[in-house]
Amino acid sequence: MANFKGHALPGSFFLLFGLWWSVKYPLQYLSQKVNKKSQRIYCFQRVDAIEGGLKIIFALIGMLAEQFVPDGPHLYLYSGENHDWVKLMNWQHTTMYLFYGLSGVVDVFTYLFPVVPLGLDRLMLSVAVFVEGCLFYYHVLHRPMLDQHIHSLLLIAIFAGACSTMLEVFLRDNIVLEMVRAGVTIVQGTWFWQIGVVLFRPWGGPMWDEKDHSNIMFLTMCFFWHWAAAVAIVAINYTLTYCCIQRRRAGRGEPYISLTAQQQKRDTSSQATFLSGSDEE
Amino acid sequence: MANFKGHALPGSFFLLFGLWWSVKYPLQYLSQKVNKKSQRIYCFQRVDAIEGGLKIIFALIGMLAEQFVPDGPHLYLYSGENHDWVKLMNWQHTTMYLFYGLSGVVDVFTYLFPVVPLGLDRLMLSVAVFVEGCLFYYHVLHRPMLDQHIHSLLLIAIFAGACSTMLEVFLRDNIVLEMVRAGVTIVQGTWFWQIGVVLFRPWGGPMWDEKDHSNIMFLTMCFFWHWAAAVAIVAINYTLTYCCIQRRRAGRGEPYISLTAQQQKRDTSSQATFLSGSDEE
Amino acid sequence: MANFKGHALPGSFFLLFGLWWSVKYPLQYLSQKVNKKSQRIYCFQRVDAIEGGLKIIFALIGMLAEQFVPDGPHLYLYSGENHDWVKLMNWQHTTMYLFYGLSGVVDVFTYLFPVVPLGLDRLMLSVAVFVEGCLFYYHVLHRPMLDQHIHSLLLIAIFAGACSTMLEVFLRDNIVLEMVRAGVTIVQGTWFWQIGVVLFRPWGGPMWDEKDHSNIMFLTMCFFWHWAAAVAIVAINYTLTYCCIQRRRAGRGEPYISLTAQQQKRDTSSQATFLSGSDEE
Amino acid sequence: MANFKGHALPGSFFLLFGLWWSVKYPLQYLSQKVNKKSQRIYCFQRVDAIEGGLKIIFALIGMLAEQFVPDGPHLYLYSGENHDWVKLMNWQHTTMYLFYGLSGVVDVFTYLFPVVPLGLDRLMLSVAVFVEGCLFYYHVLHRPMLDQHIHSLLLIAIFAGACSTMLEVFLRDNIVLEMVRAGVTIVQGTWFWQIGVVLFRPWGGPMWDEKDHSNIMFLTMCFFWHWAAAVAIVAINYTLTYCCIQRRRAGRGEPYISLTAQQQKRDTSSQATFLSGSDEE
After folding, report:
1. Which of A145, A178, B8, B281 is the most buried (most CB within 10 A)?
2. Any transmembrane segments, and where (chains A, B, C, D) (predicted)?
3. CB B278 within 8 A of CB B174
């Protein structure tokens, strides 16, 4: 839906997932390090499955919203009488949601059937993000300058996310890549909101001049402020997660995570196995 | 041949190979897992050789078809009297087939002579796909908008396939990459058919308006529906293969493939060796 | 600041860092080789932290300079009366400095808290360079040809640096990548000076004709002369570092670094572990 | 020199190196395999040094030719009287040769001083090719269509070569990459000749119509015929090398290189170490 809600809805979805990932992956990384890399914490696999379920639900919500809003296509694709396609915008958005739904399905299957090759879930997620990017690329081509620019900035975040997720197919459980994914997803979420606010002014305010080059310049800069904010959010969540773990261990009378040179060394050694897919951490 | 047959022919070739790969590679992967990665199943190498032979045959069929159709160049490249090139379109298509033929030759040689370095077969295939992409890129430059757009969408699938195949040079026997290749090849096949149907309407129907932007938008979306379909096909074939193997083993009274955490673990460990070229599978 | 100082300031920063890196990394590499890769020389980690501090200081200087020059925005972003943005150029430059500051902060944290995953520092640096590149890309779009070309050449160095630094996330302590980073940073520094000199002629001299194509051609060539110079500088610094180490060892009566085939062999073996992140250095 | 000689000269250089590499690397690969990967054949390192020397000589010849042809700049860069640059074309070509010279210098140093990090030679070669590509990209921008297209095709080969050589920094002694480099270099050589023949018709013949689109189409196709030819040449040289080794061993009464499954297996295992830089082969 080319209106505020149509941007706020996916924005919120991405924001939720980004924030959740920025908590989940540090938790996984740190608790594995605590447990001396001994056993893979099984619960995290269940969490992946639940995530997949949420993706499916969100995707369904998105698709239904795009289809059945008052001015939606209501599942009509081609109207016979006036020989034309019906609401292709909504159909394209539906397609985007569809691929995120597929990604969710693969997540669930990966959990249910160990015979599914590892990495397919990341691959499917990466494809979903990539498809979203391609569809955006083509469907903002013939818009006014401001509209086109603000969406093309979104493409930077989208394709950055697609690439880093693609890398995760081969470098699974790489904490750096996972935090990149979390950050990029947060940026996507906040920028969707920004787009909605700039183009549709939900709370009134003056219209943005679509020709004014200084608006373009401001938005370019603003986009990277979102990046800086995302970096800060991820860092804060990482720190909070670390503190929680330390406190819980202190409560259980266990030793703190040692911050010694050895620890550092173990880090480097785990870093050494990044390129050979360090999932045994 | 810029007509329906000229798109249906390569489309069918790609479709056949894509479908075959989406069965073969899961079969290889699963049967290797069953056999505890002990011995490399030799028969699969013979299958590769047969594939190479098929590629050569298909390439020859394609080249002959392009050359000797009634309105073809019949191997004339330059006509002396009117000082011009003869049917360059057909010659370009012939060139595309030629490289797939070369790829087939390398496949056969890799099987016949163990001294041929491994990876050359994948490399040659990747080059063939890349060359096809380049030739398409240049020879749709000066077409009407719809024609150009529908072919440029094809380029996405082509270059995605070229990249993933290039990766296989270094990550041989990586099931994820192999399934990507299968999926992308299926998309190429179906999309060739789509192009033929849209541009040449073999079964009549109204002409597509080449200027109408909504047609462009629909085709963009339709292209990714082909992707979703390909994902589904690959998934279904993977499942069927798995079921066949299980039934056969059950028939032979052998244990089922265990779906325990250990199995999962072995998966992750094999996944861990992806980047170091998992050849022990 | 779109004037000479505004280019000389960042130019000097990059030049300083590039030169420093071209000394530091050979030093680290060679002294580790001398010490038989036994223990990681700890002091180098402290050096990283100090570097981070310097980055922060330089970034602050840059931001304050951009904000509080006489014709700067003085932290005003939007002026109410004439309903327009204030000095967006300066704001964009401030944003660039901001990300380098963030990179410095991450460097310091990586040193202080071993629990910070290794690679985040390189990642943040790479993001900072990438952001600089994106902002440059957008804010020279509507300039005269010469101005645009001379900045677009800078983009080559910027994105080359961003990519090589991104690789360092996975190939930490890879001497080749580190020397690439040093060289590219030197080029950026010198080219910033070149831009300032060409566009603003601090020492007078004739105006450059912005339309003249031969000026474009000369600058293109000149840019790669800077590359050649950077290569030479890095090579010289590497040699000097090597000589210093040899002399110091000679002074301490220790044996010279052997240049035998074994040495060569050890090199190759360490080279062999490049892709698995050579952390034992 | 924008004339036939100016294209034939570099073309011959590239052709010589491509052909030489297509013999040298198979020789190295096969003789190492024969010797059971035991010792690195030392002579090949001396050969690298000689290659470096040849590069330097060729680069010098090229630079002198560009400078001191009758219509060359004779080392004058800026002419005072008519306030303009002198023969920038020749200067740009000189710059290209310069970087190949630098690459040669690094080759020699790598041989002389084992302390030079491995991979720098490949890096420098890759940079030289990349610089050549960038300079070509910029200096054919404002040419007639045919001229621009024929050079832009060259860019495909150039950047493909730059990428594969860059990969060799991390995957040294990877026979596949080395054969890619050989093939791409041969294509560059032959295509330089093609350009010279098409644009300057050294042996007379009719002028090519620069506007005619069919000429563009033919050249695009012709470029990839050069690729096919290069593939054939590399394959033939590989075979000849193999036969020579076999005959020599037969003469010395040594066993043939075994073509058994074990051999195959060893291949795969060596293939397995590709990504961890297989130079111990």
Report:
1. A178
2. 12-31, 52-69, 97-116, 123-140, 152-171, 183-204, 216-240
3. yes
